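cron nightly-structures :: item 1 of 1
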Amino acid sequence: MLGLIVSLIVVGLLAGALARLLVPGKQDLSIPMTILLGIVGSFVGGFLGYAIFHKDADEGFFQPAGIVGSVIGAVIVLLIWTRVGHRRAVRH
């Protein structure tokens, strides 16, 4: 159980950091929010992978396709976050 939690944090940090590098513009996210972005992106990427290819993670947790899916999911979540966040921002 502890190994799964540490794995989620590490994959979340990697996917979130890569997503922040790939999406242009400034994102005001702390390191814990970057990890959360990556974890949520992993779930989004896993759901999209299952919806498109009808396969799940039968071969283990760490797979190259799973990492790529996590980054793609994190990019999608970050794009949505930045678009929704700008609408709520107070403009002077």
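cron nightly-structures :: done
The chain has one domain: 2-88.
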